[in-house]
Amino acid sequence: MSLSAESEAPSFRGSEPLNNLQRILQSCPKLAEVGDSNEYQNTISELVGFLDSLLDAALSDPDNEYEENSAFEALSEIHQYIGSPSLDQEVVDALSFELPKTVSKFAGISRKFLDMAISIIDQFIVKCGPRDMLSIICDTLGYSSKVTNAASYIVPPLSGLSKVLISIRRRHFEQVKETVPIILNVLKAVCLESDEEELDNVFDRAVEIANSIYEVCNKLVDNAASEKLRALLGLYVLQCLALVSARIDYKASGCHSLVSQLSRISSYCGLSYLSLVTTYDAEAVASTVFGENKDDCMGCLSHVKHGAALSVIWGHVSEEVAQAAKEDMIAIKDELRNNQIKRWQAIGVLKLVLSFVSLPWELKKHTINFLLCITDGDIRGNCDGGHSQWPSYMPNIFSALQAVKMVIMYAPDPELRKNSFAVLKGVLADIPISQRLDVLEALITNTDSSSMIAILVDLVRREMHTEIYNSTSVVKDVQQINSNKHSNTSFWTPSILEFVERILRPPQGGPPSLPDQSDAVLSALNLYRFVLMTESTRKTNYTGVLSRSSLLKVYNEWLLPLRTLVTVIMAENKNDYDELAVDTLCTLNPLELVLYRCIELVEEKLKQVT
After folding, report:
1. What is the CA angle 354-360-364, rounded to 5?
2. How far apart are CA 610 and CA 608, in angstroms?
3. Which of 187, 367, 470, 591 has the fewest CB atoms within 10 Å around its CB?
């Protein structure tokens, strides 16, 4: 562009829009003097409308430098106007109710607009005082639900709150207690609606607020208020940690920096890793902080428990984070390996990471690795005291197994699926043996995947094999019989036949659905064959499998109807060469072989008992 062309480019300075803005601003003090409240409010509304029109023009044509420059010059004019020492306080107070919302809408245009919006709000804090501005800025945050780009909009008010909170002089705990739920509700809503790249600034300001509350805690001389504020800060930090983990790229250095800062504050709040995965009770803490209003605030704290679990996993992931939290991960893992009750508590807490849909697979992978550390191999602390307390921990352990099961089924990484299976076996081994079959049955009942059911049925077979092997060893060592309190045969009972029947003869009636349930049916047939052959070889009948009535029921109600179904499906697909027919035949071939072997075994046993 030539020099003459540049001189002809339109400028906001001296333009009609600037003259219009100056006219509106200059009329504000005059109206304040007259005391016409209606006209005064109309003028402020006109100012807001004027700024909104500049914002719309800049956003509708992002490449138009004039529109962007006009918008920025208008904010600069506002900034200069509010900062004028001669401006009447009544005018500043009136503008403070509306302009924080208006200028925050500009924050998404560019960094300089963001900085200018923050600076304007800072001026209001200085001119109006932190106590008055606290409610105004909270109201500004709440307005985020009505704007288009909420992630950028909330950054200036969040920045303002970080400064207001450390500036208030009285009733610190009460003020922070009223503010934190507002902040967390807005953060939660914005995180659900915004793209990842828009959230970096948001979380930076959220951590600034945590640091501000931390500074307030250090200022308080009232120990009771300080303890409550530290508890509230702990809740805030854990909720923020969960949101950061779910919405910021796990591999980004910024994410690790945010987590380290939050972990440092968490340590200050007395939240040790061991307590977070064992005894930390978010609802009890919330009751201490919010009293009878606790239920009204639990919505904004919906991910505090997830944050507690994630705190420990981040320490496992990053040595830097563990150091910030002043934690020794080796000692924590050893404590959990050596104490069954604490291990059960930790498993029940860490399941929240695995079931949290929004979390990246990387964090779930690290959670599985951590669980592997505390459940795999020679874990200790499996004592009778734990067995007596099992009923109270059973619901959490079961839901943890459900979560691990889902990772096995849906994880994209083969190594993660393999390690998850190892965790599944480790957690099952930690359950009292007398309860293990019931847990496995419940897992199967709550599983739709035929392949997963097959895996679980095979675990039952392995348990039975281990039991029978151990019982043989015990018989050979009388001294071991006297000392081994779990040498019973919990799986070798008639219940095992009921277990198999649920798969081969489903409760809803008829044979199982094939080929959809082929994996589950094949595994159940293999389990039945194993039980039948083992009882025959050992000349025992713990399960009742060798009784005539059982053999007849299995033969007539399980095996023959299944043979008829398999024969029909195989015949229907035998002469077809499309991909589906070939897949069906390949799926049913191994099932057919095991089915016929089971039929032969049952027929042979029926001849012997006749």
Report:
1. 35
2. 6
3. 470
First to last CA, the chain: 107
| Distance between CA atoms of residues 584 and 129, nearest Å | 76
Say if residues 573 and 581 touch (Cβ distance below 8 Å).
yes
Whole-number Cα distances in Å, 277 to 176, 336, 380: 27, 10, 18
DSSP string, 177-190: HHHHHHHHHHHHHH
Between the alpha carbon of residue 511 and those of residues 296, 305, 502, 506, 524, the distances in Å are 51, 44, 10, 7, 13
How would you classify residue 14: left for phi > 0, otherwise alpha for psi between -120 and 50, otherwise beta? Answer: left
For 259-307, the pLDDT digits (tens) are 999 999 999 999 999 999 999 999 999 999 998 888 888 889 999 999 9
Query: Residues 551, 556, 561, 563: is their CA dihedral positive or negative?
Result: positive
What pTM was computed for the model?
Answer: 0.89
Burial class of residue 598 (count of CB atoms within 10 Å of its CB; 0-12, 13-18, 19+): buried
Residue 601, Cα to own-chain centre: how many angstroms?
50
Structure tokens at 271: 């939240």
SS3 508: coil
Contact 523, 470 (CB under 8 A): no
